[in-house]
Write a structure and sequence with these properties.
By secondary structure, this protein is mainly alpha-helical. The protein has helices at 2-5, 11-32, 38-52, 71-83, 86-112, 125-130, and strands spanning 57-60, 64-67. It has one domain (2-130). The protein is built from six helices and two strands. Strands 1-2 form a two-stranded antiparallel sheet. A hairpin with a 3-residue loop joins strand 1 (57-60) and strand 2 (64-67). The two termini are 24 Å apart.
């Protein structure tokens, strides 16, 4: 849903979000000793979507209904309950942290700060040309 709503006709920006997130995850992974980062990278779009669609209700397994900002927390808690250790949920937490940085740089920084758009909030022009958006 993130691709269709927030990044419609903006493939370069979506790629740039995932690329910068992958770089951050590669830099942070040794701190928590994670060999695989696929679930962490999958949490980045989930987190960004949940922050951009804060009023959307989500039903978890037909038992609970929560709003979208609590979805990453619920998924981390679910991972913790299933696996039983914080080590198992560390990758998901790392993905939430990187997703928060991505969301902050794209949505909050560009809207609230004086600096406006930066290289972290929008794909470079060369990348947009590569994706055929300019």
């Amino acid at each position: 849903m993130l691709e269709e709503s927030s990044f419609a006709n903006r493939k370069a920006d979506y790629f740039w979000l995932l690329f910068l997130s992958a770089i951050m995850l590669l830099m942070l992974a040794p701190l928590v000793n994670l060999p695989f980062l696929s679930s962490s990278l999958a949490f980045v779009p989930i987190y960004v979507w949940s922050r951009r669609h804060s009023s959307t209700p989500i039903s978890l397994f037909g038992l609970f209904t929560i709003t979208a900002p609590y979805l990453p927390v619920a998924l981390v808690a679910f991972s913790l309950v299933l696996n039983g250790t914080w080590k198992a949920a560390a990758g998901d937490l790392l993905g939430c942290a990187v997703g928060h940085v991505g969301w902050f740089m794209r949505d909050v920084w560009t809207r609230e700060m004086v600096g406006g758009k930066t290289i972290f909030s929008e794909a470079p022009v060369r990348l947009k040309r590569l994706f055929g958006e300019l």
